[in-house]
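PROTOCOL LOG
Step 1. Enter all chains and additional molecules of the complex.
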Amino acid sequence: MVKPVLWHTLYKLSEFEAHKRVLRLSTVRLGQAMGTSQQTASRHLSELEKMGFIRKETSFKGVEVKITKRGLEELRRVYLGLKKVVEGTPNEIILRGKLFTGFREGGYYMSQREYLLQFRRKLGFDPYPGTLNLRLTSSEVRKKRELETYPPIIIEGFKGRRRSFGEVRCYPATINDEVEGAVAIIKRTHYDDSILEVVSPVYLRRRLNLKEGSEVKVKVPTSRIL
Amino acid sequence: MVKPVLWHTLYKLSEFEAHKRVLRLSTVRLGQAMGTSQQTASRHLSELEKMGFIRKETSFKGVEVKITKRGLEELRRVYLGLKKVVEGTPNEIILRGKLFTGFREGGYYMSQREYLLQFRRKLGFDPYPGTLNLRLTSSEVRKKRELETYPPIIIEGFKGRRRSFGEVRCYPATINDEVEGAVAIIKRTHYDDSILEVVSPVYLRRRLNLKEGSEVKVKVPTSRIL
DNA sequence: ATTACTAGTAGTCGAGTAT
DNA sequence: TATACTCGACTACTAGTAA
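Step 2. Run joint prediction.
Step 3. Record the structure below.
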């Protein structure tokens, strides 16, 4: 957990647009902007760098600061939390994406007995051994991130004979307003934000008559939550 | 300025939806949620109440907390700051409202010589002695608040013979894609968020052929800024 | 000019405890 | 059980200053 004072400094840096470009400033100026001393500003920058939220280049002329992807992630987390508060919670999140064929790992995952039993118990259906891969546009990626701030149904990971399987975060959903299923978010190391995986008890490609590139609508109710 | 630790506590309370309803909890539980002690949670609540960000009712069964309007305002301020960072800055903010006749104070304001001279120098036109009052819907009010987070052109207040006049915050704008003018935000004590006042060098009602209730489009570029 | 170390201090925290 | 006070411990601050 990032300390509130450091978060505040990170936020100030974002006000100076340090997420867009390398920001040149002095620690005196940063201190003034934060209502604190030069020394504190300097220390905060060092700590933020150590935590990986910023990169920093120091010279006798001043500091050059840039917020990292990790730092922006941290700001985004709070942003999404506040969005719910300020804008109100939507009743559903609708995501649209285009069907594409992935590496067919999904099917391998879903056919694991340990996953299957949990799906049956926690989501109420036996998943078809394969996932529907949807490619999301950038605006849809934002909505996916928003979705991820809601508490998921967690399908726990396990160690298999040859490898271990990570946890899967699920959100029950309706696909194309017709079929019940779920969004399945699998924690991977090389993880592409712009992909959405959908599971369902039926073979969705046939059931919904989908082709490569077809647009698919996924409606996730948020009311279950809370 | 609210201290970062206290802001963090306020944020946590909003995660518990204390902005929507009275939240019943114990300080132990709040402490756990914040990764701090019961004592600290208790102290933070007292300080937040003293600052007017929450109302609090204490009993031997626990505390009842509700975030006040002022507290929500504080959360909204940071939300809007983060929105710029996370969503990117829009090139323009478009506001739509319906024309209505106010108390005609606007004309009185605009005909003050001290204001007029500043308008001419800072905005480049002599305002018609009257403002266009637009009634905004709730979604437009949100956009107006977003607009207010950008640095305005400030027309300074002054003391007249009989009364004093407050400062006016202006944003150059285009009205109905035709006429140049500005949004004028006048700080009042009894201040209605859902009203937008527009000034321009011409008599807009005639120039744009507007009637009571006509929808008016106000386009404010944000590029000037920064 | 700068940054950032050291050292002393102010402020924040949490254990104990009164209510 | 609660909240919230006191007070010792510790953290985070700023002044002074070296580089």
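Step 4. Note key features.
Chain B has a mean pLDDT of 89.
Helices of chain B lie at 4-15, 27-34, 38-50, 69-87, 105-110, 113-123, 138-147, 204-207.
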